[in-house]
Amino acid sequence: MKKAWLTAAVAGMMTAAMVMPVFAAEWKQDTTGWWYQQDDGSYPSGGWEWIDGRCYYFDETGYCLLDTTTPDGYTVDASGAWTVDGTVQVQETQETAAQSQNASGTITVGGLTVIPPAGFTKVEELSSADCVYFANASMDGIVGVATEKIPDMGGYESLLDSMGEQIIDYAMAELGTVDEKSTHEFASGTWYCYRFANASEMGFDGQLYVYARIRNAEVEMVLFMGNLVGVNMDGIMNQNLR
Questions:
Q1: Using one digit for the tens of pLDDT, what is the confidence trace for 157-190?
Q2: Which residues touch 80 (CB under 8 Å, ≥6 apart)?
Q3: Counting beta carbons within 10 angstroms of the beta carbon of residue 59, is it exposed (0 to 12), middle (13 to 18) or buried (19 or more)?
Q4: pTM across the whole model
């Protein structure tokens, strides 16, 4: 998939953004609990968020869950960090592990940790440092995970998160004819899903769905292409991404 449209979409949206206030990203506490203020003044809620290399779950009101089991069945310690068998899970840096596979079988692509979907195998010849593709047994169904850092924002990188939906909407319209758009809350956070009415106009046989968002000045996309019969896309988004 071509990436040039991402740069054009971002550039076209940033002029109005320059008048928006800038905040310092930091943890905050009140009588109810801990929450995290982003650079743009917003705060994560209703799902998972990577912060300084660790993953935290925030409830619908934005407060971090501590020393408990999250609604989707994962454990967090007294500081709120995601743990597995008592060990805090640490996010690898993009520079050292843009696409690394560890002993548990997960793959790191940018800021995303990916568990290969059941029934799909990584396609080495299609994958690269910033994207990974998985194919089904018949090679006619593809799941792709891609990320791209947005460069040269002149200090306004934090504004991208608050404007992410508008930017992605514009970019997807430039990519092709969007037949349906929906918003989803998963363990990894909020994603926008786009179903394209005519995938063949973009060179794809079968169906094409793109889940996309902008987070931490990085475009994140999960693509479902081709024969998607029996593929639980929401299930993969919720269970195979962190």
A1: 566 667 888 889 988 888 888 999 999 998 888 9
A2: 34, 56, 57, 64, 65, 66
A3: middle
A4: 0.60
